[in-house]
Predict the structure.
Amino acid sequence: MDPTTTCAVISIALIVLYSFTRPRKELNTPPIIHLSDEALFQYPRQAYEAALQQHGSVIGVYRKNRLEYIVDESLALQVLTNDSLFSAERGTAAILNMPILNALPYSLIGSLDKLVTKGVTPILERQLQRLGPIFQRHMFELAAKADDAKAPVPVELAHSVHEAMAQSMLLLIIGEKEADHDLIAAAIKVAFDVAIVAGIYQNIGYWSRTFPSTWRAFIWIRLMIFTIPWTFRRIGWRVWKDLKQARETGKTDHIDPDCLVHYLVKDNGRIPGFTESIWIISLTLGITFASIHQTSAVIVWVIYELAVRREYLPELRKELSSILETDPDTGKPALTFASLRNAELLDSFIREVLRMKGDTIAVFRLSTKDAPLGGYVIPKGSLITPIATLSHENPKNWGEDANKFIGDRWVGTDKTAASVSTSYWPFGLGRFACPGRYLAVAEIKLMILTLISRVDIFMEGGKYEIIDPLNTVAVPPRGQLLFLPLEKPLL
Ligand code: HEM
């Protein structure tokens, strides 16, 4: 080895040795509070809120063998928006059990954010014109299950919602206009499998909850190496073929110009090569999960809430009648982009559901350096999250009735379901607030208005059950929805 190389090797070795042996200075870290599994998984809101009240604005709590720092509303803004101390991308990767994302040369989460911000939001109206008929067809088919019924009949909502979401997202993402049953099933399965890796159902399984580290290792290998590539192969192959044809012909006309794969190819600046194609396929996998799973869960939440708060239905139908426009081709009443924008009462109801459904820990960040916070120091590499209920239901933010569900609370204000602030962040906050929220709210409105234009909705027993109180964000409630056809459909 020549002297220069020897010096370089020795220097690197010394730096590595120093960084491992360097005495770690004592940090003034927040108190670590023990919360029992029962408290965390059965009544997390009360447990976290009481601990914060007793021990101050920031505490450490072990959950599923992992230390998480929990803050109250006074520090929420700082934690969620101070990118120089708390990283959204790293926090999301860690909480989704995918720290490997942080080792990639490009930021997957940053690229997904850009993809939706640039590829969907600016052309939201056009996208909704394309996707709308798919949502409506699935909801009409579901409503038709109650045709001729004289008493409320049970229907299976979640399945239809997932199919509608999967089919429309296949059109949005890969430009598949006629997705067959297998392709739709593959998209649903991919979203579900990624949700499992991401730990979305981890709180409700005995093994995953009791042996979280072993569970994480096992599930990661099984799902990431075998199951997800297998279920994703049909979608991935379709994208691969499109990209291969582009490489061979130098052209992209065979790819739907409004789909996200087309956007990615254009954004790449040249026809993607092999590694760029793999990256594009990874992004389509990520966006399939991000766009299908959470929106489907929220639609179920909103419809179940409506079914137990039936007093809002007459007003919502009145609103629907007033916002319908006339389809220029058929002359029939139609729901357009403008109709959805004008559905103020429904928007307010959705916002109230998102505010009040009891989210506790929902949006995570990871400290990128030893970060001063609330009189303590959060050590570098720590997960940190504010408790959502303390912001969302705080009387200081929303008045004395802050913890009361008032469906029309936001009508006539500038606060829409998608407009996030320090006191309302179901879509996150700051630079990385969910880029898909405008699309998501429009989809939710479209599905709900379509349904209530044809059927009356009820919950069996007048109630639903929360399956996972610690994850009301992504796990929908359970209950039996019932439909009764309207005498005079509005659509
Ligand atoms: C009601 C449905 C949805 C909810 C409640 C939701 C919520 C969230 C939340 C809380 C975050 C993290 C934000 C943060 O860290 O500050 C997020 C990130 C993200 N969401 Fe959504 N989301 C929904 C629908 C969608 C849809 C339909 C899309 C795509 C079309 C989407 C795409 C993304 C992406 C790409 C990210 C990661 C990048 C980023 O953080 O900017 N989401 N979402």
In short: The two ends are 80 Å apart (CA to CA). Residues 88, 92, 109, 112-113, 116, 120, 290-291, 294-295, 298, 363, 426-430, 432-437, 439-440 surround protoporphyrin IX containing FE (CB under 6 Å). The chain has a mean pLDDT of 92.
